[in-house]
Amino acid sequence: MTNIAVTTWSLEQTAPTDLLPAAAPEGDVRIVRSEVPSPEFSRFLYASVGGDIRWTDRLGWSYARWQEHLERPGVETWVALDRGTPAGYVELTPGDDGVVEIEYFGLIPAFRGRRIGGHLLSYGTARAWDLAERWPGLAATKRVWLHTCSKDGEHAMDNYQRRGFRLFDTKVEEEAVVATPGPWPGAFPA
């Protein structure tokens, strides 16, 4: 099996004022919270957004594992809709002591390059900062962080930095090359 070097960058904001919002795109683009925990919908978003960039860590999750994750207090999925069609999403996962991770973020390939990503990231980051307002019992957010890697889209790092995220860690690890899973088998060439 062939390996490749994958660089992972971790970025953070440490105050709500760090957020530098992007302008909203033209047209009928809305962002809504998926309030009903739905393993089917969350897996659809995960596979559709990450299928061409080799997101594989959750593909083996059982229905019960998805449900358990989605029902954790404070886990939220915010979905960008372009004229009612899911275009991408951001998933927030609270940690300890007011730390919120933007665990997943991205757009379905057909919606990339249309200025939706910056707007979705801005909106999702703002929701990370006010997460405790919707979840009594969670500590107020003190830090929002995320990671991106060299397998992600070519504009990912620039988008994060333009939204005010600062780099705090870089790691390089060898990973096995895996076939591009796509949202369903055979969706993308290997």
Automatic annotation (TrEMBL):
Keyword annotations: Acyltransferase, Transferase
Pfam families the UniProt entry points to: Acetyltransf_1
Database matches in Gene3D superfamilies: 3.40.630.30
CDD domains in UniProt: NAT_SF
Start and end residues of each N-acetyltransferase domain: 29-190
Ribosomal protein listed as a keyword: no
GO molecular function: acyltransferase activity
Enzyme Commission number: 2.3.-.-
Entry protein name: GNAT family N-acetyltransferase
Native source organism of the sequence: Streptomyces ardesiacus
Organism phylogeny: Bacteria, Bacillati, Actinomycetota, Actinomycetes, Kitasatosporales
